[in-house]
Design goal:
Length: 513
């Protein structure tokens, strides 16, 4: 991290359109929040999803901003330098990288993981593999940040933090001399240039499913945003001179799109089609997947320590990437066998109750379907007489088209369903979201409200209700919040611990018997 002058910074900022009130000003810090600006700081203004940062330029100047960067051609009522750029988000990424001394260029390897589902699990599987193999690893994921020494949360409900935070976390990793940085990379992050200056050596795609279509104009636009991660490999090869690796899902319908982007090595993993790393002869041990892995070095049996057949793909992606980086297969398989999962993903909650309870984050149609299918498969191994109970809901302000579909999926697989709230805002009451989900349930004709289907707005009340419905040998899925530590109720953010809420409900029932 270095002290910057505006003169020096201008050498790096892309697509400058205009400079007003230029002076060789010293820049102390950088912010996109006018409320956090202090004397000598640089304020970056851009059009956000809900607000326009340009509206707060005057506030930033009052708070002491020394330089303003924005996209609009405006006249400041001040002599503060104003730099007009074509894309302020892209400029923010570059400015942050300069400010933190381009940490991604110093870190030996930077791996990006994108896709619709499985990103978080794949990141943490990879981190465990590299750590077991003796590398010092840092990561940025939905669950938080590990800078090589300490782990902490980002306090944001986003998969990938903003560009300024990303560069700060990479700077901490650089200071801690990590060998490998692994970054979970969302479509929003890619389209908003949050990871534009991360210089990825390896790009991994888990899969493509329709998601975030409330933000992306169409599925093709969503896919295009994902391809940017692979396009970055070419820039990395030129600047870092590093070998680049592309890791692709051979069973995904969009694989040909990602194959168009060059890398020094392209590795394909699969279950159904041909691939360099292929899973076959799939079975289970105590409900956990087991499969035969065929890879360039031979064949090995893979034992997973996590529930859910969907984790086969996650493990294949992690194994493919790790092996391509020279990690011995015996170390990879040992690390995979010891990987016990991540917070909020098919996590078991057990206080001695005679039925199984799991917490999961599933919030898309396909993730819910796969979760329910895995739970059904597990139930068949436990007791065919048991029932599958599901509690779930959806957030407000997200893709509304999936509500009815997810209601249908819930009613197709679950024997009993409680629909509740997740996060909701003043723009749309939770009851409306629940009603739209319920329309899908009703349309299937398989569940009847009041008999095996209920609507309960209050999430804590809903959790207690479904726990009290469970019988011996049942499986209960509590879905929608997973790892998150806050709950938004009518726009008000309150602390929330899903596992604690479920645990307390289980203990209350046990103690009442």
């Amino acid at each position: 991290m270095k002290q910057l002058t505006l003169q020096y910074l201008l050498e790096f900022i892309p697509d400058i359109k205009n400079i007003k009130n230029y002076s060789s000003t010293i820049i102390n810090n950088i912010s996109m929040d006018s409320r956090k600006i202090q004397k000598g700081d640089l304020f970056v203004a851009y059009q956000g999803i809900r607000t326009d940062g340009h509206q707060f330029i005057s506030d930033a100047i009052r708070n002491g901003a020394a330089v303003i960067i924005g996209e609009k051609d405006i006249v400041l009522q001040s002599n503060v330098p104003y730099i007009q750029v074509g894309n302020a988000r892209k400029s923010l990424s570059r400015i942050a990288a300069v400010y933190y001394d381009f940490p991604a260029l110093t870190i030996p390897k930077v791996i990006g993981v994108t896709g619709s589902k499985g990103k978080t699990t794949t990141v943490h599987m990879l981190a465990d593999i590299f750590s077991y193999a003796g590398y010092k690893v840092g990561f940025i994921s939905t669950l938080g940040v590990f800078d090589g020494n300490d782990e902490f949360e980002t306090d944001v409900h986003t998969t990938t933090p903003d560009a300024l935070s990303i560069q700060r976390y990479l700077w901490l990793m650089m200071k801690n001399e990590v060998d490998i940085a692994i970054i979970e990379t969302s479509s929003h992050a890619l389209s908003q240039y949050r990871v534009h200056d991360c210089y990825f050596d390896t790009a991994i795609i888990t899969n493509i499913e329709p998601e975030h279509l409330d933000y992306h104009s169409c599925l093709e636009d969503y896919v295009f945003s994902k391809t940017k991660l692979f396009d970055y490999l070419t820039k990395t090869a030129k600047i870092k001179g590093k070998t680049t690796i592309s890791v692709l899902n051979g069973d995904d319908d969009w694989i040909s799109v990602f194959q168009n982007f060059s890398a020094d090595a392209t590795v394909i993993y699969s279950q159904e089609n041909e691939g360099d790393f292929k899973a076959s002869s799939i079975s289970s041990r105590a409900g956990r997947p087991v499969y035969l892995l065929s890879y360039p070095g031979g064949r090995e049996r893979v034992y997973l320590n996590v529930f859910g057949t969907f984790n086969i793909y996650n493990s294949l992606a992690a194994i493919s990437a790790a092996f391509s980086h020279g990690i011995a297969m015996d170390k990879i398989l040992t690390a995979i066998a010891n990987f016990s999962g991540i917070t909020g993903r098919f996590v078991s909650v057990d206080v001695g109750q005679p039925y199984k309870v799991f917490i999961d984050y599933a919030h898309t149609p396909n993730s819910l379907r796969k979760l329910l299918q895995s739970a059904k498969n597990l139930q068949s191994n436990v007791s065919p007489e048991g029932k599958l109970l599901l509690l779930f809901g959806l957030s407000g302000g997200r893709d509304k088209n999936k509500r009815i579909l997810m209601g249908k999926i819930a009613a197709t697989y679950a024997d009993k369903v409680v629909v509740t709230s997740v996060d909701w805002y003043p723009e749309e009451h939770a009851s409306n979201i629940i009603e739209e989900i319920s329309r899908g349930i009703i349309q299937t004709g398989t569940l009847i409200e009041g008999r095996n289907f209920w609507k309960i707005i209050d999430r804590l009340e809903a959790i207690n209700y479904i726990i009290n419905l469970a019988d011996k040998n049942d499986i209960v899925l509590i879905v929608g919040k997973g790892h998150e530590h806050t709950l938004t109720i009518n726009g008000n953010i309150v602390p929330w611990d899903e596992k604690a809420a479920v645990t307390n409900a289980l203990l209350a029932r046990l103690n009442s018997n």
